User: What shape does this take?
Amino acid sequence: MSRTVRLNPLDAAWLLTESRATPNHVGGLLTFRLPEGAPRDFLSRMMADFRAHREFAPPWNRRLKYAFTKNPVPVWLEVGNDEIDLEYHVRHAALPWPGGERELGELVGRLHSTPIDLSRPPWECTIIEGLDGDRFAFFIKMHHSLIDGVSGMKMLVNTMAGDARRSESLPAFWAVGMGKPRAAREKRPAPTMANVSASVLEGLSAQAQSLPQLVSAFAKIIKRIGDPRDGLAVPFDAPRSSLNGRVREKRRFATQQFPIARLRAVAEMGGGTINDVVLVLCGTALRRFLQERGELPDKPLTAGIPVSVRPADDEGTGNAISFIVATMGTDIDDPVERLHAVRASVRHAKDHVQSLPRHAMTQYTMLLMAPSVLTLLTGAGGRTPPMFNCTISNVPGPDKPLYYRGAQLLAVYPASIITHGQALNITCESYNGQMNFGLTACHSSVPRVQRLAVYLSDALDELETALQPRSPRKRPAAPAKKAAPRPTVKRAGKPRPPRQVASG
Assistant: This one.
């Protein structure tokens, strides 16, 4: 008998706001280096093996089931192996060799523009060959109602190995999946009207307990609109910008990469965190980008930042996130002052959310997102004041190298969601000592998104230089006796990592 799994309200919201111009799927661009001595048909063999591997683990075997006579919302139905068409789910693409970051980004932008067929298990995998430097890539996309970024990273780790030899015999990634969710979640019945009513009654106590905290939290938000004296940025107080209009179907995609050690060193010099530095880099890049177009608002841009609230023992694949809103400091000329403003804003926002009990997080998130969801459902998205100007998120990943079929994973670049009113999404993913930026944008609202990727690198150079301690001015020394000349030691300059930019 097929098993069903219910959607939580946040997962269901991603389905309700789905449209041709705003498909709600997330993706990941994974680049690999071919194993040493790999045969010329290495990828052809992998493709044939993939299509022959017909065992599927959750969530890869889940598709939506609609039964409006019994269920108010769809549920996930786990289908049999023979019901999944790998000819559809697994594709093959090739760049004209030697394909660089620009060509790869253009292809990913096209792949990410196409909605997923929701009558099937909502995922696709494209194997990409023709990259320079003996590389190939996977582009995997899944609907956001099925998985979030943290869950996706856990799944990635589960499908790979830390040793090249041991990875040679690994199965196709859809045979591994996420593992079993918590037993308590598995035993929940499908959401019939009777069961939904019972679930609501069960949750009334927790909601009642959290009501005072929720009222207090939202009262503070309303009070601070237009008056952010304490550094707390609030939703719907963002300036209008070219990032916040209507979006079209076509997507652009660009990447950037920095060593985490370099970001950490800058953060330590500035008295902040790596996340603070990431937000400053994005704000600095956007400030320059909009200035060049004559579109920089006088009021600072704000960012919506997803925050994971998943318990450590929860291995489920659904979404468990809340949001904070923070300034990007785009109204400040000095990069160090911009960092201080961002750091203070993030601290106030985190303190605000963390004042809520854990059981109130879902209610808070739904209430916070409700106006934005409503604008999308009614077609008003991009025509009303923005909740914030863009989304910036950071997904933690493994700090050790991973291998798949003997090939070393080089980088993971996230491709995320944009909506009406939110034409730019910047998502970072850490892996093996590197921070990988994936920039997803509407092609008409954010043209030449590769410039933003380059400006991120320039922003790091600028902030790093501004934070470097200046050598104190030396006083003229008194004349001294001549001594034997010391040998001259030439100091090497600080190495800079090569820039990696992809666009589409």
In short: Residues 246 and 382 are 5 Å apart (CA to CA). Residues 180-208, 483-499 have pLDDT under 50 and may be disordered.
